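Milestone 3.1: sequence recovery, worked example.
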């Protein structure tokens, strides 16, 4: 499986990459990106940032690069991708965000620093940096969620 993680120039993207040890991870970002290619991951540029066409830029990139799932980390990417997830699905690309109509439950107005993060795919926690075991969530829950303690409400992790 080939996974695209946006925000590839951010150290947090590198931490999240560890959750996918058996997949090829493409770390991408807008503008200049270091040209690195290894057996299990690579860095690539998404081109110039144009916030008005984020979904189009990322769908085109995913199709061109043969991406199976995209994990958006930039806060300005989450809503456009969640709203376009059906279109991405038609091209065989999974969008790892909560459904568009449920986004407000998981977003906060201010940027928060979290001690831990968990990655959920179809409600299953596939990775938790704090080693917690989470109860299965709604089948629709996808993405990276930040938390300090396992008991608190999960918040969508963005940069």
């Amino acid at each position: 499986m080939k996974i695209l993680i946006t925000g590839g120039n951010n150290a947090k993207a590198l931490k999240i990459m560890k959750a996918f040890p058996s997949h090829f991870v493409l770390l991408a970002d807008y503008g200049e990106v270091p040209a690195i290619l290894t057996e299990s991951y690579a860095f690539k540029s998404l081109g110039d940032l144009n916030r008005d066409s984020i979904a189009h830029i990322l769908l085109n990139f995913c199709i061109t690069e043969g991406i199976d799932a995209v994990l958006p980390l930039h806060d300005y990417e989450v809503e456009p991708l969640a709203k376009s997830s059906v279109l991405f699905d038609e091209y065989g690309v999974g969008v790892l965000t909560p459904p568009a109509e449920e986004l407000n439950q998981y977003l906060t107005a201010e940027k928060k620093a979290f001690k831990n993060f968990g990655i959920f795919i179809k409600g299953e926690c596939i990775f938790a940096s704090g080693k917690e075991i989470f109860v299965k969530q709604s089948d629709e829950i996808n993405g990276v969620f930040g938390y300090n303690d396992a008991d608190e409400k999960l918040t969508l992790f963005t940069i």
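The mean pLDDT is 90. The chain has one domain: 2-156.
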